[in-house]
Amino acid sequence: MPSLTPDLFLGCMIGFFAWFAVRCVLSGFFTVNQNERAVKTSFGRVERLGEATTAEDPISASLNAEEKQRYTYPQVRVIPPGGPYFKWPWEKVYKVSIATETVSMALDPGSPSANNSGTILEAVTKDQLNTGLSGQIRFKVSERNLYAYLFGVKYPIAHIMGYFVSVLRERIANFEAPAAADGTPAVQTGISINDLRKNLRDINEHMDKECACSAARYGMQLDASLITSIDPPPEVESALAAINTAHNQVSSDISLAQASADQKIVQSRRAVEIETLKAQAEVEPLTLLAYQLSELKANGGKGALEAYVRNVRLGLYTQASRIVMEVK
Asked: 43's torsion region: left (phi>0), alpha (psi -120 to 50) or beta?
């Protein structure tokens, strides 16, 4: 067995230090881009912020008590953009892009060919009409819950898409047209797809509200959803168009009848007001005359009242062209 000479020992030491410099020093530095966030693990355990969890974070405000127990994740130390940072060989860095992404709401990450290759999402309305929905959703990774995105959920995008689709289908299946602004209930047409089309904005707002808990659940934040169209199956589209035409005609007739009735009511009220004013105009002189006569009788005695009657009679005589007197 050859002995370890000083030159061989020196060569081994130089080789070790060279390997250490390359492995631990040069490759230990890393940077984080502006649209990225990073977390670091040591022997597989992520660096945490003490005992803090997402249950105390504002992102869990939309969860109920049972959901808070299910979706409680530790809060981790997030490495912000910049650098260079250093890590040891036993440490590993996970970088995540927090840029907002837009995908079709019909996308199925587990099966790209599903839902007509991710273009149309099918849903059933309350009157058992199979409809096709198209639109987009925007989402991004939640910086406040990177643990759930990286370690808590195996495939976060599949979870958030599945959750969104389930909430949307439940909403479509139970949707009812909201009441009017004055509190009167909406007119029921029996065709739920018409109500859905007229209330796309309300449906989008409902989806944003219901999916606000996605960041606490899966570590992905739903920024917005936009349903652009709701279409019936081709085999019933012509029948639905005919029904809509008949319904629009009926609605038009009802509106015209209501307008005519309202106009007649307004005219009747105006006529009543006019006749009331006429009656008041005829009664007012008589009322004033009675008042004046009462004042004359009270202040001037019987003679004043008889004189007033005589003067009125003389005035009438001057205006008459012929007088007929009764002779006893």
From this structure: left
